Amino acid sequence: MRLLSLAARNLLRNRRRTAISLTALVVGVGAMVGLRGFINGQQRVILENFVYGQVGAVQVHKAGYLANVQGSPLTLDMADSEALRERIAAVEGVARVSPRIAFGGMLSLPDAEDATDEEGAGKTSFLQLTAFEPELEKEVAPQRLKWLGEGAHLSSADGAELLLNADLAKSLASGVMGAEVPQERWPALLAADRDGALNGEAVRITGTLVSATPGDRRLGYVPLGTAQRLLRMEGRVTEYALAVKRLEDAPRVRDAVRVALGPEYEVHTWDEVVPFVAQLLGHQDFLFEMLTSVFLLTVLLGIVNVMLMSVLERVREIGTMLAVGMRRRQVVALFLLEGAVLGLVGGALGALVGGAVTLWLGQRGILLPAPGAAADSIIRPYVSVVYLVRAVGLATVGASLAALWPAYRAARLRPVEALAHS
Amino acid sequence: MRAFTLALMTLLVAGPALAGEPTAEELLAKYDSVMGPSTFESEVEMTAFREDGSSRTYVMKMLRGENDKFRIWFKGPASVKGQEMLRVGDNMWVYLPNLKRATRVANRDSFQGGDFNNADVMRVNYTQDYAAKVVASDVPDTWALELKAKSAETAYDAIKLWLRKKDGQPVRGEYYGTSGQMLRSADFKDYEELDKGYTRPTKVVMRNELVKARRSELVIKKMKLGVEAPAQRFTQSNLGR
User: Fold this and answer.
1) Looking at residues B100-118, what average pLDDT do you find?
2) Does any CB of chain B come closer than 8 Å to the CB of residue A106?
3) CA A166 to chain centre
4) Of A63, A252, A348, B89, which residue has the fewest beta carbons closer than 10 angstroms?
5) Is A110 in CB contact (< 8 Å) with chain B?
6) Is A193 in Cβ contact with B50 (below 8 Å)?
7) Rounded to an integer, what distance in angstroms lies between the CA atom of residue A71 and that of residue A77?
8) What is the average per-residue pLDDT within B108-134?
């Protein structure tokens, strides 16, 4: 305890030097916290887009579905029943179950009303469709609601409605249609049914979707019942998407659902369904760790230098301490403590500054035009308290380690020579 | 003597043509005349085999009229009964009984969920759609042709065809997409004289090269050339009647 107060007082002896070291630490730790906050915010946007916008936290399919998704996934479907839904919903941690069908189809627009030549010919396009019950889906993938460009969302579980990607709608020279548009003017949704035979349904474009993620724009949503009629799959679905109470619990919920359903079904967490997203996040974390390591190392090397100077300046003093009976390891401890106090104070101030900036940016939000996506994302940086504590801890330990060599140098001094040092 | 002179002259005139190699244009014209005569009526079955071991047979009647017009009536199975398809020049429609209207479809769309696309079945006019050149053949006794699409609207970006040297009948085809990837391959089989002086392969096996376990077989049951088809049968308003 006496050593600690001695260390603190030693630091105060050369205020300017200590201030410079502290500034370096504050900038280093502050930048580390701020950057982490930004990356957290960005990763949350990515997660929201994929997990809460498309995939859902956990998915249930017929066994073998994901491996064959390129082939003809409609034949790997499941009988949908209240009982099955309840069996899944009863699993601890499952918040909501949303039945879906994912399928490919073709949208064909009728010719313009006064069409006499090629100009007015209706356009056609292939597209990838997701069918769901709007009431259930909004609990599992609430982010979908935010992607509405114009018009309205699907209103029922079996209406003749279509939500179409805005860019695709534009390229098809079409757009949102009011309820007054007669059925002959609606586009036809064509698809091969479960047996491969062609079928079609007329659907009204009730709304358009903005693109939140880069990639294919040929996307649309239809009510589940409509897809079941089109695909001749009444009472059948290709997937259940589950919302979980806490996203971190997804792997545990997956295992529990697996046990509850048996080998006839396969259960995956979101990062198994879209592994590239999890990989992307992993790469980002790795890069961040590298960057902050280099950053901190630079700051700490500065501290090594400062401490070394401090030792060299205080050779006579150290000699006196050793001469009056101070033990060598107490000398080591003194210098280590000086480093630790420096690290603790600098780290705490840095965490405070970084945390405050992150909090402020988090409230304000950073508007980021996402490349390749039509919908801008707002990044809201945040850091956890645990991360802040860890940052302070890291600075304290780091600064102590930086003091290790100078402390060793100090402890190795011979008292007689040190006293004679001028 | 006169007969001999005539024979000799014929030989002298025709000889070089017989001995010379046919041009790409001649071979392609031959392919078109075999696979898509200008007018005909036929009864056709297509069976789609899927990777799960299931298969499905579609029964249809086809009619081709003057000026590149084409119509198909589906007779079975029950799920497609009453469906019709129509092509007039570059435009193609499908008529679905539950929609009660003609809906446009594209060349590249799959024909009834099988491995043929709409153009494979309804638009056999390679001379118009593709530019051909003769290349060295790796199959004995055949000519090989390489076809490049003339526009982006065609069913494929490139096609490779093998035709028998002895009579110009097709043996094999390979069909490529934009990236140069082989999408499908076809084997032509069971050559038969379906109408007087008209021989063609009556079976085409189209393999899906992307999902290898999938294939579709098109079998021509009956075919009659030179039929009279009134123009109004090739109008949108006539569909469903």
Assistant:
1) 80
2) yes
3) 25
4) B89
5) yes
6) no
7) 13
8) 82
Kindly report which listed range (A186-195, A267-276, A324-333, A371-380) carries the lowest average pLDDT score: A371-380
Q: What are phi and psi of A222, to 5 degrees?
A: -135, 155
Inter-chain residue contact A193 with B105, CB threshold 8 Å: no
> How far is Cα of residue B236 from the mean position of the Cα atoms in its chain?
23
Q: How many CB atoms lie within 10 A of CB B135?
A: 12
All residues of chain A having their beta carbon less than 8 Å from the beta carbon of residue B215 are none
Residues A365, A379 contacting (CB under 8 angstroms): yes
The average pLDDT across A211-216 equals: 68
Distance CA A418, CA A323 (A): 10
Q: Where are the domains of chain B?
A: 22-238
CB contact under 8 A, B105 and A124: yes
What does each C-alpha distance from A29 to A198, A348, A417, B124 come to in angstroms? 62, 8, 40, 71
CB contact under 8 A, B79 and A108: no
**Which are the contacts of B11, defined by CB distance < 8 A and separation ≥ 6?**
none
CATH of domain B22-238: 2.50.20.10
**A196 chain-B contacts, CB cut-off 8 A:** 48, 50, 56, 112-114
- Closest chain B CA to residue A203: B99
Please give the structure tokens belonging to residue A398: 């780091």
B17 pLDDT tier (thresholds 50, 70, 90): very low
Contact A198 B83 (CB under 8 A): yes
Map tokens 């009229």 to a residue: B65
Q: For residues A200 and B103, is the Cβ–Cβ distance under 8 A? A: yes
Distance from CA of B94 to the nearest CA of A (A): 9
Helices (H), chain B: 2-19, 24-35, 118-122, 126-129
Q: Is A127 exposed, middle or buried (0-12, 13-18, 19+ CB in 10 A)?
A: buried
Which residue does chain A place closest to B104, by CA atoms? Answer: A108
Give CA–CA dist A315/A319, Å, rounded.
6
Interchain proximity A110–B58, CB inside 8 Å: no
* Residue partners of A81: CB distance under 8 A and separation at least 6: A235
Q: Residue A121 has what DSSP assignment? A: P
Which residue carries 């570059």 as its tokens?
Answer: B90
Mean pLDDT across the stretch A44-53? 84
Task: Give B58's contacts in chain A (Cβ within 8 Å).
Answer: 197
A77 touches chain B (CB under 8 A): no
The residues facing B144 across adjacent strands are B135, B162
Q: Which residues of A touch B113 (CB under 8 A)?
A: 192-193, 195-198
